[in-house]
Amino acid sequence: MQKSEFISKIKALAKQVYANKIDPSEVAPSKFPMIDKFPPLKDVMDDLFDFQYEPFVKGVEWVAPRPTTFRIKLVNGADFYLMYEGKDDDKALFVAQVAGKKYFLQSLPEEQQASEAIARLLRYKFADTGKEEEVDTEIDAEIDGEIDASSDEPEVEPAVPQSVEDL
């Protein structure tokens, strides 16, 4: 192979690589950047939520470096934790802590139990609506009026004896 042939093949390969390159502006920003930074977490989330976690998850936070712990915030205000325990046979090992109970996700029955516990969190932990209770101002005014009216009465001294002889 001559030098000129070698250079032309390299140029052709370089053009091919750059032609297949995706423009960063075309890629949609991810809703959960932490999952993009830690790919094994995406696999676990897909398993726990049956590939439908985006509508139910509000955010993912990295909360501890060792063991690597993630807080998964659900849309209704509840949360649970996923702890990364290392790798075993090229598979990431995670432990889910849902409502205080730990589930070892390398076991299929415990993974299913963790999914059911997450479903219970989503079912029973309702989100705060953000509405404040309406306070009846008439009742507040009556209470304030009663307090003001009672201030005209003389103060009553407590019935504490001054000395032992007063007993």
Architecture overview:
By secondary structure, the protein is of the alpha+beta class. It has a domain of 91 residues. It is built from 5 helices and 5 strands, in the order αααβββββαα. Strands 1-2-3-4-5 form a 5-stranded antiparallel sheet. It is elongated, with a radius of gyration of 32 Å.
The assigned structural class equals: alpha+beta
Q: Main beta sheet: strand number and arrangement?
A: 5 strands, antiparallel
Q: Name the shape in a single word.
A: elongated
Backbone CA Rg: 32 Å
Beta-strand fraction estimate: 15-25%
- Secondary-structure element order, as H and E? HHHEEEEEHH
Q: Bin the helical content.
A: 25-40%
Distance N terminus to C terminus?
A: 120 Å
Question: Largest sheet, order of strands side by side?
Answer: 1-2-3-4-5
Low-confidence stretches: none
Count the E strands: 5
